[in-house]
């Protein structure tokens, strides 16, 4: 049984050299750019709005990705947009938010409707990003609700790209294994 499903005639788009673990489920209006990795038990529902995941981003085990529907009071709803080179840690929940490029979302983090995470940000494990909150580029954020803690170090900034590249290498190993 396939883990990739159409909804109202719209099927997820899977980019080149992308890995989707068979135990994950992708439904509807989802766009996965090249070199994306979707790890075990990820649930992504692009049923009432769209989900877009940028190149080289990785969505780790048990993460839930969803969106907010369009309505009279919110004509565009809230799609979910994830930039390039993003690492989303295990069991995160991203709902109708915008994630920039080179972002690390820590394990168990909740990011809610209309929150915006700018480029080059680390969000610590177990954090809660409330609806409409903007996390400014270049900082570490932690807590529930999330608070800006300090600027990222050069080592941390470099780790953002390193993490994405590491998961590209790992998913390439998984793809090679399944093609043997």
UniProtKB/TrEMBL annotation:
Pfam families: Hexapep
InterPro entries registered for this protein in UniProt: Hexapep, LbH_gamma_CA-like, Transf_Hexapept/Carb_Anhydrase, Trimer_LpxA-like_sf
SUPFAM superfamilies cross-referenced by the UniProt entry: Trimeric LpxA-like enzymes (SSF51161)
Name under which the protein is recorded: Gamma carbonic anhydrase family protein
Native source species: Parashewanella spongiae
